[in-house]
Specification:
The protein is mostly helical. The chain has one domain. Helices cover 41% and strands 4% of the residues. The protein is built from eight helices and two strands, in the order E-H-H-H-H-H-H-E-H-H. A two-stranded antiparallel ribbon has the order 1-2. The N and C termini lie far apart (35 Å).
């Protein structure tokens, strides 16, 4: 387990902080657009290693994430945490790294997605817990190794990301995750339904 404690800093100017996030968002979004519905990626490995997640919606006005007292990470927190990712993440193929990047930048999405790999007994609350341990302390992001060896966790996160890129809301994403993975032998996590959009 790797814990990253990120110092909270204010950018010198909003424009200076937004431009790198915008560039990273474009590179990650373009790379993920080639994903198939099975969760695999067609992005080249070199591009995956250099594509850091974005936190486009993470600013001071972003509301707290509804599960627990988690809050959305800032762009600086996302960048620093991604840069400090542990070896079990950097060693993953493209699909796994993409899933971890999405989980880091979008806890607001994955908190509503159940995981059907059997991790409810750990106990995980949602697919988010497969990638990061509970984030109740602001600025502390502890990578969870579980998703690094679980194909269902990775495919769930990548499906959610693909649907988000298609403009689907949390309710539509949840229905797709339930339909795709809910028919297996493993019991899903006890994840609440997202609020009506």
């Amino acid at each position: 387990m790797a814990t990253v404690r990120v110092p909270v800093r204010r950018p010198r100017s909003r424009l200076g902080a937004i431009i790198p996030v915008f560039i990273v968002a474009l590179s990650l979004g373009g790379a993920v657009a080639g994903c198939s519905s099975s969760g695999s990626s067609t992005m080249a490995p070199a591009a995956a290693a250099s594509a850091a997640p974005s936190a486009a919606s993470a600013d001071a006005s972003t509301p707290a994430v509804p599960l627990g007292s988690m809050t959305m990470p800032t762009a600086d927190e996302v960048a620093a945490t991604w840069q400090a990712r542990p070896g079990f993440v950097t060693a993953l193929p493209t699909a796994g790294q993409t899933a971890y990047a999405f989980a880091l930048a979008h806890p607001d999405v994955l908190q509503w997605m159940p995981c059907y790999c059997g991790c409810a007994g750990i106990p995980h609350r949602s697919n988010l817990d497969c990638f990061f341990q509970r984030r109740e302390v602001k600025g502390v992001y502890t990578y969870e190794e579980h998703a690094s060896f679980c194909d269902i966790c990775v495919k769930t996160a990548n499906l959610a990301q693909q649907l988000l890129l298609q403009g689907k809301n949390a309710t539509q994403m949840r229905a797709a995750v339930d339909a795709t993975f809910g028919g297996g032998a493993a019991k899903g996590t006890d994840t609440p339904q997202p609020p009506a959009s």
